[in-house]
Amino acid sequence: MNAVTKIDTQQGRVSAPSKLSSEGPRVLRAGFIPLVDASVLIAAAEFGFAEKEGLTLDLVRDVSWANVRDRLAFRQFDIAHMLSPMPVAAALGLGSNPSPTITPFSLGRGGNAITLSTRLFERMRETAGLSEEASALESARAFALVLNQMRLTGEPVPTLGMTYPFSSHNYEFRYWLAAGGIDPDKDVKLVVVPPPLTSDALAAGAIDGFCVGAPWNMVASERGVGRIVATKQDIWPSAPEKVVGMRPDWAESHPETVSRLIVALDAAARWCDDAANHDALAALLADQRYIAAPVDIIRYVLAGEFSLDAKGNRRVINNYFLFHGGFANYPRPSQALWIYSQMVRWGQASISLNSARAAASAYRPDLYRTALGETRTPQDADIRIEGDNDQDRFMDGRPFDPARLVEYVRGFAVRSTLPFAPDAHEA
Question: Please, which residues have CB within 8 angstroms of residue 356's CB and are 6 or more apart in sequence?
C-alpha cells in the first residue's frame, strides 16, 4: 500500500478525498526517525487518512534528530517527527541551529524505556539484593550503590546513551538517575547515540545503558545484552513524547493545510490506538522503509508486552503506547513548561518570565482547536498542575505547578551545579 492509496478504514472501501481548498492539494515532505512513535505519521500516509484530506505525506527516513531539526530549518522538510522538547529548545534559542519551530499536535505518549547492560544489572542485584520485580525507583537506588562501589575501587564511570540533549530521553534518564541520588553530570557519562544504534553499542560495550524509544529497548533485551529497568510510565505517564514540528511562518502561510493535516493525524491516531489494527500497523512499521525491525517485537511493543531480559522475565504495561486516548495529541503548554523546568534544572537554560512565555508558546493548542473544534478539546486549562493524581504521578511524587516553577526547580536535591540565577522577571 502506498502513500496515495485512499481507503475508508472503517468500511474497507475506497473513498473520495474531501473537497480541496483554494490552497490546492499539498504534498508535504515529512522527516522521521525509525521509531514506533512515528506510527501516526506513517499510518496517515499509508492508510489513506492524509489523502482523504487532500494531502500527500512524502515520508523521509532520517538518521538523527539533529538532521531532522536542520532539514526542517533549511526548508527541506515541511513538517517533521520531532522530540517533544525540540520546539521548546528552539523557542529559547538553544542548540546549534535554533530555528523557530512550533507544534500543533503531539504524536502520543509512551514508548521510552531505560535499559542497562546485563552485566551492570547483575552487579546491581548482587550489591543491593535487587529482585527481578524491582520498581524503577528501587533500580535507581541499586544503581547508586553500584556507582558508589565503583568510585571506591577507582573504576571508570559508566557511559550511558540517550538520543539528543533536548529530548524526553535525556530528561527522563536524568529524572530516574536523580531520583536514586545519582548526579547525571558527575556520577555517569551521558553521550548521544542514534536510536537504531543503541542495541549494537550496548552489545559492543561502547555504552553501559541507554534511554531510547521503542522498539530498541526490547531488541536489546531479546538479544540478551540488556535489561529494561524503567519505562516512561514509571517516570511520568503523561509526558509528551514526539510531536509534529513545523516552522511558524509555514503554518501561518498555510492555515488550511495545517488544519487538514491535524484532522488527518487525529484520525490516524485514533486508528493506531485500536488494538484490532495493531497487526496491520506492526507489519507496516517492520518494513525496511520505516523501522526495519522484527515484526513480532513491534507487535509486542504495541501491546505493552515486554521481555525485560533474555531469561524470560516479562512485564505487561497497559497503554505503553497511547496514540490518541486521553487527549494524548493535545499540545498542552503546561507540559512545555515542565520541559523548560528540566532545561533549567540541568543548566541548559536560565529562568525568566520571558523564557517561560517563550517555552509555552512553542506548543500551539489554538491550531489544534481550530482544526478539531472545542468539543474535541480538553475542557481543563491549557496550563495546569501536572502529575497530581493517582494515574499520572511522577516517580518521586512531586507534582509540577507552573505557577511555582522557581520553587519547583530549587526543590530538587539533585540538579545542576551551575549558578541558579533567575533574572528580575522570575517565572
Answer: 337, 340, 402, 405, 427
